[in-house]
Amino acid sequence: MKIRSIALIAPLLLVACATNGESGQNQQALLKNPLYLELYSEQMVDTMVNLEIYEDPLLEDAVKKDIADSTKKYWLAEAKKSRKAQRRSSKGSLITMKEYGAGEVMFTKDGTAVHFGPAFVSTPGPSLHAFLSVTVDPRDVEFPDISAIDLGEVNVPYGAQTFMLKDKKPKDPIKYRTLVLWDTKLGRLYSFAQLSPLY
């Protein structure tokens, strides 16, 4: 468990995260992203469990033991909540095209938000935007196609972030099967993810 914890901390340290439409980024905003919430919750639970496994002396203090126990219980419930939210959404993994792109993306069933997970990384671009499209493969059409919805500029090319659709919410979200990273100034396809509903 300890090795897994250390391996997962590295991407978190690189996360200069941002949420579309918000200035700056804070933990409360990130915790609204189910992909981030799952990783954060699991890390918190691992930390509390490791205190028990390695019989940390701080657990001899009843107050601190209660804090560790309640923290573990709370974040186990949050991890479960994050996985439930993900199962009610469409998800996919970015595929590298002209430029490097990797990470998990999620489109909520109600069509109100697109979330990038903590492991998201992309080659930066002068005007890198996220788009939703009904087109399965953006290489098959002249992109951006008529169905494409521009979610806005990718705030940072590394880490968890959220795009709220607000007035851009599609009438029939289930038809939007692809998330595309497209540089609007260069007219260049960076990467895309085919979204599959999990519900």
The tally of helices reads: 4
Which strands sit side by side, in order, in the main sheet?
A: 9-5-4-1-12
N- and C-termini, Cα separation = 30 Å
**Strand-residue fraction?**
25-35%
Please give a structural write-up:
The chain is α+β, with helices and mostly antiparallel strands. The chain folds into two domains: 2-87, no CATH class; 90-197. Helices cover 32% and strands 25% of the residues. It contains four helices and twelve strands, in the order H-H-H-H-E-E-E-E-E-E-E-E-E-E-E-E. The strands form three sheets. It has a five-stranded antiparallel sheet with strand order 9-5-4-1-12. The chain has a five-stranded antiparallel sheet with strand order 2-11-10-7-8, with no helix packed on it. Strands 3-6 form a two-stranded antiparallel sheet. Strand 10 and strand 11 form a beta hairpin. Helix 1 runs antiparallel to helix 3 (34-53) and helix 3 (34-53) runs antiparallel to helix 4 (62-87). Residues 1-24 have low confidence and may be disordered.
